[in-house]
Amino acid sequence: MHSIRPRLINENGLRVDGRRPDELRPIKMEVGVLEKSDGSAYVEFGGTKVFAAVFGPREAHPKHLALPDRAILNCRYHMTSFSVEERKPLGMTRREIELSKVIREALETVAFLEEFPRASIDVYIEVIQADGGTRTAGLTAASLALADASIPMADLIAAVAVGKVDGQLVLDLCDLEDKYGEADMPVAMAPRFNSVVLLQLNGKFSPSEFKKGLTLAQKGIAEIYRLQQETLKKKFSASRPMEV
Ligand code: UDP
Prior knowledge:
Mean pLDDT: 95
Number of domains: 1
Distance between the termini: 75 Å
Radius of gyration: 19 Å
Largest sheet: 5 strands, mixed
Number of helices: 4
Structural class: alpha+beta
Bound molecules: uridine-5'-diphosphate
CATH topology: Ribosomal Protein S5, domain 2
Strand order of the largest sheet: 1-2-3-5-4
Strand content: 25-35%
CATH superfamily: GHMP Kinase, N-terminal domain
């Protein structure tokens, strides 16, 4: 049987979308994009497009779930049915439930939840177009939306996946690379503390590939973090009242 696996690195060492192995996709970020929520963000990594919205802190509901010493952080990662080519079930899939959990756990490492006892903070991530790296784009957007909602945090979270395609380590995989590559490792960090808050691995890395992959992810994360800070500065300096 013939393999239909496409070639992922060409003779010039470039990837299916023309990038070098250590190159991120074009990134767009904006905060305060939705009016009904307390904080929001839109993040685009190439063809991956994600909205995040935050409500709260507000009184936890139902009340019996409220915690006496901190806020509950609820998180829902969801892919719209039109975000992917193949028909996606309308409800939450097992994958979406798992991703909601790991994203929440990553956000809990930086948010000062103890400042809001008995409250809840609700984070919604909606993937509107998926082309690989939706959990990392979602997490990047969610931390921006939390900052936009003025939730105190020790740091932002910036995230990107690294992987192995045609035997080569690459940064920020697109869907084709994710599907046909040998490994995919999403990494999220609180860069200020140089702390990894999410790391998953699908496929196989040798110990040295793992080390190199993590360094490559850190490089991408530094750039994403810089863009996040720039995006927040732009919003907050624009909304600051004029000094007289
Ligand atoms: N994908 C899809 N349908 C699904 C789940 C994923 O088409 O139900 C595609 C989508 O492009 C996604 C990619 O597969 O970005 C990789 O999915 P994965 O589970 O590795 O998560 P992600 O890389 O998006 O965080």
